[in-house]
Specification:
Helix 11 runs parallel beside helix 13. This protein is of the alpha/beta class. The chain is about 35% helix and about 15% strand. The strands form 4 sheets. A 7-stranded mixed β-sheet has the order 4-12-11-10-7-5-6, with helices on both faces. Strands 1-2-3-15 form a 4-stranded mixed β-sheet.
Length: about 425
């Protein structure tokens, strides 16, 4: 549907977009349609989406099988409350999640967004220790440069200084933070890489309910990559010090880093796992919190035994139908070869940017490519420039990054990497 100039003006004057200022809105572009990896803008331009609509649209836009799965479900039942009722799409999806995750992860809470899945995970950890009579274990330990969502509990475990929520620091619960890991390869592992984390958990384990972090790749808090050995050491220390481990795979799950879930690269199993974003192929909002039977049994053994959380759209049939089809498409495709192909090309085409004097670092992991600049980008200038270059990339701070759909071809990917290089050069 065309987006008129009057509509765009109303948008600028009245509609908040994510992380924007209504008094000085960043440029907003109308989208009339989308197909494959392309967005068709209302100004007549066609751009390649390097963001997968914030990392979720892994199969591309307007996928016929995903379209049909939703159409079929609409004709049967678009929504029904999940309290006291159930339905086959939710059961099928939960079974898929149990089968695809580590064997000990057996119990599924179907949330309606990534932030909510994190809230549920935090609540599970607190309730677990409350039932065990260890109410002092009410804090969380995490690493800096992390991002876990924009709701209150999730904000409290995001980076309190470098993240997006510093203004709320005096209101949010205070937790324990240690430096983000700086180990890029297991081959370069040194014991000192885990020393600060080890000291924090040894000193405060009687207060810590759980450790929460994003495995292997930190997302919106910094787009940082770290080695699997750090994650192994974290899991070991959690076991040794009677602390639960929550892994936030909302951004990394469903193949993005080169394994189906990023934690597989460390050969560990969390006590609680959060997934979302790509779960429906980007079609509808859905997430899940998956936990072990041990955690579920302890929570269920309390005086009341109920996990007191229940979103209205929990287990939405439309979203579950989309998720079931998206997972089927992923498993039936050669997704791993595609992610590896994307990774190789990103390495070939982005690493030379290290020679540009305005570039501080280049990072690649799976289907994720990041150029970190030395200075912050001006979104009012950069966003229109990227559109001129034929791409949709949404930078933040000093970071210019892409997480393209897995179906992107080599020529399309080169358009993205060339645009990134051009912006880096123009930032000199």
């Amino acid at each position: 549907m065309p987006v008129s100039e009057n509509s765009l003006k109303f948008d600028r004057d009245h509609i908040w977009h994510p992380y924007t200022n209504l008094n000085r809105p960043t440029p907003t572009f109308g989208v009339e349609s989308a197909e494959g990896v392309y967005l068709n803008l209302s100004n007549g331009q066609r751009v390649i989406d390097g963001m997968s609509s914030w990392w979720s649209m892994i199969h591309g836009y307007n996928h016929p099988e995903l379209n049909q799965a939703i159409k079929d479900q609409v004709d049967v039942m678009s929504h029904v409350m999940f309290g006291g009722l159930t339905h086959q799409p939710a059961i099928d999806l939960s079974k898929k999640l149990v089968d695809l995750t580590a064997p000990d992860l057996e119990c599924v809470f179907l949330a309606d967004s990534g932030s909510v899945s994190v809230e549920v995970a935090l609540k599970m950890a607190l309730q677990y220790w409350y039932v065990k009579g260890l109410q002092k274990k009410s804090k969380f330990l995490t690493i800096r440069n992390g991002y876990h969502g924009d709701t209150f509990g999730a904000m409290s475990v995001c980076d309190p200084e470098n993240g997006m929520h510093a203004m709320f620091s005096g209101v949010l619960p205070e937790h324990f933070f240690v430096s983000a890991p700086d180990c890029k390869s297991d081959d370069d592992w040194k014991p000192e890489f885990i020393a600060e984390f080890k000291s924090a958990i040894e000193k405060n384990n009687e207060k810590i309910a759980a450790v929460i972090l994003e495995p292997i790749v930190q997302g919106a808090g910094g787009m940082r990559v770290y080695c699997a050995e750090y994650l192994r050491q974290v899991a070991r220390l959690c076991r040794e010090h009677n602390v639960l481990l929550i892994l936030d795979e909302i951004a990394t799950g469903f193949g993005r880093t080169g394994t189906f879930f990023a934690y597989e690269q460390a050969d560990i199993c969390p006590d609680i796992l959060c997934v979302g974003k790509a779960i429906t192929g980007g079609y509808l909002s859905l997430a899940a919190t998956i936990t072990t039977r041990k955690v579920a049994d302890v929570i269920g053994g309390g005086q009341d035994g109920n996990l007191m959380h229940g979103p209205t759209f929990m287990g939405n049939p439309l979203a579950c139908a989309a998720a079931n089809k998206s997972i089927e498409l992923l498993l039936s495709s050669d997704w791993l070869s595609n992610v590896r192909r994307i990774e190789r090309q990103l390495l070939d085409e982005l690493m030379p940017c290290l020679k540009i004097s305005s570039v501080a670092d280049v990072r690649v992991k799976g289907a994720i490519g990041v150029i970190e600049l030395k200075n912050s980008l001006d979104m009012h200038k950069i966003q229109p420039r990227l559109v001129e270059l034929g791409v949709w990339i949404r930078p933040f701070g000093k970071l210019l990054y892409i997480m393209p759909p897995y179906v992107i071809n080599s020529d399309q990917l080169s358009v993205l990497t060339m645009a990134m290089q051009t912006v880096a050069l123009e930032s000199l």
